Amino acid sequence: MARIGALIVGMRWPAGGDWKGAIGQVIRAVAAYYNAHPAAGALLMRGNFTPIDRKAHEEKDAMIGNLLRERLHTLGVLGDLPRQPDAATLAVEIAFACMKYGYMAEGHISEAICAEAEQAMVAYLSRWEAP
User: Which of 71, 72, 110, 121 has the least C-beta neighbours within 10 A?
Assistant: First the structure.
């Protein structure tokens, strides 16, 4: 969990408020991490979680959601994302659902799945994009 957070914090985000490009970067970086660390990928993507595991995954997604919200705020976009329900964390859950599907179907997270995760997350978050 901390490694994913550090990966996101350490990323260079695109200039000019390109939040959609930033979403794609984050998804691909997270996918690359899980593809490079098969044990982490198997633990996260295969499911069958105990209540303690589920709590850890909820905390991971909330942490990533908070980082996403902070980065979007820094870019000056999507400032009205609801906190209840937490739209940033829901967006993270949407992306992870896509990645989990790809991992289960193919044994890794492919570029095609990354593109689908990006499209799904951007479509969801676009609801709060300023006209």
Answer: 110
